[in-house]
Every structure is written in C-alpha cells, then in structure tokens.
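## Example pair
The file below holds two records. Each record gives the amino-acid sequence first, followed by its structure token line.
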Amino acid sequence: MNNKLETISNLFEGSEIRSIWDSEKEEYYFSVVDVISALTDSNNPRNYWNMLKKRMKKEEQSELSTKCVQLKMKSRKDGKSYSTDTLDTKGILRLIESVPSPKAEPFKLWLANLGSERIDEVFDPEIAINRAVEYYRKRGYDDKWIKARLTGIVDRFKLTDVWKESGITKDYEYGILTNEIYKSWSGMKASEYKKFKDLEKNL
C-alpha cells in the first residue's frame, strides 16, 4: 500500500475514507465528507462541510475550499457514482486542523509531533536518512537494496543539477525529461512504471 494512503487509512482506523489515485499528479485524493464524518458527530457531514466553508470564507480563510477537486466517487448508500469534494493529502491534513471537534484533537497532536520531527531533521539531516533506512527495513527491503536506492537518489540530484545548469527550470520540463529517460529503458512513463512496481511517491 502506498505510504500516503496507508497513513491516512491508519489515522481514520475504523472509518471508511474513499480515495482516488491520480497517476498523472502522483497524488491521492480523499473524500472530504468522509473525513468530516470521521472527525465529528454530525448526522449530516455534507452540511457540516458547507457550514465550515462559509465560516472559512467569512474569516477570509477560504483557500482550503478553493483547492477542492470534484471527482466521481461511488456512494455507500446506493452504489452509484456522484461528484464529490476531494482534497489531496496536504489538503486533508489542513482540513483536520480546521475542524473544531474533540475528535480532531488526537490528529492535531499527531500533526504537531510530525512537524516537530521535520524541524529536527532540518537541524540534523541524518535523522531523515536514518528514518528512511528504518522505514525501508520495516517494509522488508535488505540493506543492499536500500544502499542502491539512496545512491540512486543522489545520482538523480546530480542529473537534475546538470539540467538546471542547462537552463531547465520548470517542473513540467523536468517531468518531460524524466519521462523520456523512463521510456528509453522501460517503455513506460515514470508514473506508469512506479504504478507497475508499486513505487508511488512516498509521504
């Protein structure tokens, strides 16, 4: 399971959070009303979300609702697909921070601890490296594979530095070049190959 999807699923253990994978953007999108339902005691999470959007707009904090993407998701009630407000992982975590509910407090504490860990990594980058190694070991990868993976990351930075020196600065330009490299040896775009190998972008 992709690490982002696994993280969100673990946060809402016991609650079904519908999700869709966007292979082009390499990002999961999660149902907003499902998250609202899991965080509150509201009998009508859709109405709760509408009220929350109005409050955000009144407080001039409507950036979250404007980042919503409407995607077709299957309803648990009748099995039909309907347009549903969704947010990516970053948006969902921001939504958790915005919900004034006792149920949301454990999630906010988790986010605060996560932020503290990232700040520690800024001052001591080795912490992040150790965390990555430990993560891969828990996933069952041996040290030889981990070493190759970390070496590959360093080599990729070297390659992008060369591209930057050649005047490549836009994200889409990096994407085009990366896809060409993947196609030359795998016959697939980067996103297709990652999906094939179950190597979607980690959190």
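Second record, same layout:
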Amino acid sequence: MSKRKMRIKVIFTGGTIGSKINDGFIRPNGAPMTIIENYKKQYDNDCEFETLEPFEILSEEITGDYMLLLGRCVRQALDDSDAVIITHGTDTIAYTSAFLGYTFSDAKKPIILVSSGYPLDDKRSNGNKNFTAAVSLAYERIGGVYAVWCDGKQTQVHLGTRLLQQAPYSDKLTSVDNRYFGTIEQGKFYPNECGQAENHGVRLFLSNNLRELKTLSGFGSVLDLPCRPNMYYPSLTKEVSAVLLESYHSGTLCADERFMSFINEAKRLDIPVFISGANGRDTDYETVKKYREAGVFALPVASPAAMYVKLSLIASIGADAIELMKLCCGGDYI
C-alpha cells in the first residue's frame, strides 16, 4: 500500500511575499502560486498542496474583519488537511498570528504563517526559505499556531501569541524575551527549551463565537497608547472598551498629574486600564508603585501586539476584560 501524501492547505493573503515591484511600488501581483512552484522545483517529496485565497492585500491594510475572514478560512482548511500554511505580510504578522493563536489555541494541527522581507524575485528575499521551513515544520505535526523566519544565520519558529512588533527599520521576527519556540535546521525541528509553553486550555474565543460574529467590533475600541515623554492623553468616551498602555522598557511611565487625571476619567467611565511591559523584574521603580496604586492592571510578560489583539477579541464577544486578561491563552504569558 502506498503511503498517503502529506496534505497542506496554503492560504494566500497577499503581502510582500506575494508581491512584485510595479511602477516603483510594491503591490500584490495576482500570482501567489509562485512560492509553491519555487518549492516544487527544488524539492521532490510526498507533499500535496491545495490553495485558498480569501483576500489579497498588503498587510498594513489588515483589519479585524479581514482577520475574521481568515479565521473562517483556516477553520475550513483544517477539516481536510494535515497542516495549514498562511502567506502574510511582515508589517502586521504579529497581530494576525496572535489572533490565530487565540482563536485556535486548542489546534491539533500546525498552522504556520510565513512572510518575506522582500518580493520573491528580489535576491535578498527570504520568502522561499521561510516557506520551505514552514513545510518542514508541518511534517512535525505539532499542533498550534507558529510563524517562521530565516535571518540568514538561523531559522526560528515563533509561537503565534509571542511575536513582537518589529523594531523600526527591521523586518526580523522576534519573540518576547527571546523565547522563540524552536529552530529549523536542515529540514528538522529542534525545540528551544526556554521557549516551550503549555496549552492551558483557556478557550476564550470559542468557535461558536467566531461563527456568530459578523464583525470584530473590538478592533478599534481598544485605545493603545505607547508611553512618550510629555505625552498627550486623548479624551475618553464610552465607545472605548479598554486602554492598553505600553510602558518603557523598565516597566515605567510618567505617573504625573495628567496621567492621574486620565486614569480617574477612565474609572468614571468604567474603562479598565492595562499596561504591558511592566512585569518580570526583580525590583520595580517608584513610578510603577504609583500607577499600580491608581488601579492600572499590570499584565504578565507578553507581547504588546498580542495584548492589543486579546483585548480586542474580548471586547468583540462582550466578555469581562479584567477577568480574562488574567488568564494565559495560547502560551501568550511567559
């Protein structure tokens, strides 16, 4: 009896990995199959690809509703495949991978996002290498949501809920506290001992919720504020579901009179205020004590991008943000 081929569904969404330069600008080129054709030219294995294309955009155009559409497409693809690979742009891959990491936190099959720093026809592109690494990871059949990235020296595998937004002028994917999930070396997966995470089974966003929702209204209702010197605090309205502050690297912010006035207004409107980047240190600064005493909820060590997505999903299903943000999901908390 012949061995059944590995069945991989590839979902194309656009991004640099599916684009070309046209009239001096990078734009989706309507020919997403190139990456599979390139793979087949180089490798002859027992892998069978099927493709889906729910939309074709540059990833900076992603919205909650595009994510919802992608989530439904992934659920459909999982039914009759061994793994799912998603091609995606780098700009917002941390947000989409977090969304999938939460909505598929109990996935029994691998769901892998791949991107590229440059279009595939650019010799600097790592898109083909990333795709090849994703196929290798698919063969491991490790359930979960992941993103892969080859920087020329090492190919890392990242948990979907642990990706950080890239540093300015960099396309490299990194995980919180460098806790990447593992590496791909010569087609084999090697786990990173400090990057493993239990699936805690906290299913915050059940499939029934996704099927019922027509839109992810929480995206746009969460006010995300990175801390800056002498920063401006906007006026709050009841349309804001939660505030997410992103602290300085030491977990601090300027807890001055303007900040306290902002927090008091949030309390008056019953808007919970969270801060990311504020835990995981031996000793806190005095300013940390001030904002904690003011009622700001300091989140565990996690990706700020993932925390934004988590809060947005909680708002979309109308759940209690304070209670659910205490819980780890999809390995997001370190």
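Notes on the second record: The radius of gyration is 20 Å. The first strand starts at residue 6 and ends at 12.
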